[in-house]
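Why does residue order matter? Because the sequence determines the fold. Keep that principle in mind as you read this record.
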Amino acid sequence: MSGAIAVSAEAQPSAGTVSSAGVAAPHTDPTAVEQAAAQALSHASAASDAAAAAPVAPVPRHRPIPQLLHLQGTKKRLIIGLVGLPARGKTYLAQKLCRYLNWIGYRTATFSVGSYRRKAVGPAAPPAFFDPDNPEGVQQREQLARDALGDLFTFLGSGGGQAAIYDGTNSTVHRRQLVASYIAEQEKRLDIQVQLVWLEMVSSDPSLVAENIREAKLTSPDAVGLTHEQAQAFFAARIAQYEKGYQALGTDPADDENAYLVNIDCGRRVIQNRIQGFLMSKIAFFVSNLRVNRSPIYITRHGESQHNVKGLIGGDPYLSPNGVQYAQALANFIASEKNITKDELKELSVWTSTLKRTLQTAEHLKPLGLPTTHWRALIEIQVGPQCDNMTYAEIAEKYPEEAAARKRDKLHYRYPQGGESYTDVIARIEPCILELERMATPVLLVVHRAVARCLYSYFLDLPISQVPHLDVPLHTVLKLVPKAYGCEVTRFRLAVDSCEDHGGATSPPPTIEEQRAAEEKALAQAAPGETVSTAAAEQQKETLVIVKPTGSPQETVQ
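Structure:
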């Protein structure tokens, strides 16, 4: 019996939307995937049939699926292999998924076959290179696939990696068998246990494909030097070559014994087969909720609080007079944000924590009629009763061991007597991250410094070691606009005075030596070919806008 289930994203989480044994949910078209598979098979050419018949090292029909609750300190590894035609959002998903897995603590890297192709034959490989009737092209592409897999296993072996994402089309049964065979060989060589999960991206909506080409492919290295019209034609010709031999997951009877996910139309429908265990369930949930979101996300700290003025941490204080002034300035800023139309403003939602200083800041937004949600998960890092309502200087004097431990490792340091660490905060706000990933409308988050740092690091894909040191000052709005391969960041500095402007009491910033050590540590932990961003490098790419009280901004670039 098949282990597949189909999930309709539109119906979640209503009852009756999940069915077993491959039966479609009642709110979806039960024949959509079957028709897509039949169409893909009808395009298979004689060359692809010959390739499928080529000898491949045998792999077991059914491989036990290891439980991947904890990869740390074990021989278990996870490989997610992407499947799909070009311009289906595979690389977008790969980057999002890699970012998510790293953020929740699994050392992950992405290996894109396209990057190896560009290095080997250049970015402008002609469409004939991808023709399944071109034996030389087929041979070259298979070698490039092996090259990527070789580096992938270096990362999973001596590189200390726990999970890897294999980004390629993997569009035929033969290619997927080749990958599975290679994995079986490397398992024996490295004495590790690998779970291979296929993840197919399917799009039945031509407008989605056209939008993917427009936003992602037109900024791709493959399109350098081409006009928009030339790039459109170039990628359309490449897609046509892949369509000749495309074989969807589920077209081979042996697929029933493999773990796989099929994501149809950006989560409108998701099919799961043999997805078991804690980590794979988290990945399936993430994929099911991921949307292509181009709406801005605004992140700001609450207005200056009475504790900020006194240099105290913890507690649940009210705003200071400056903080109240910022709350009103924030409302004015949101109301006049030039990139939000009136219709979008009606759709903008406000998220706050449950602490007084965020609630009081958001109170001034009420005249705008914006829906507001209070998340306890968004409260400030908890410092525990021992350090509550103290200054950092008082903690250093009274508890020098705690102050020293925090300075040594601010990321993992946990405040005593039930306090939290930054890693605890990351775990706590994960549900908020998942909800943001599925949002399709603008969101304003009025939160606290530790939470803002975690959110900012996630969306900019910064190394986790940088999180405690990110600069998120008071009375500043961070505007993040998701793009195909990252975020465009603008900082709006609202012209309201705060204690931080005058060197007021705050968490001691890292020294130059501490910052350099953190960045060197991030570089040392990078996967082969992995781009490592530092906080300083990322923030140099930001745009800073000073919003004057008169409402006329003055823009500079940092």
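The chain is about 40% helix and 15% strand.
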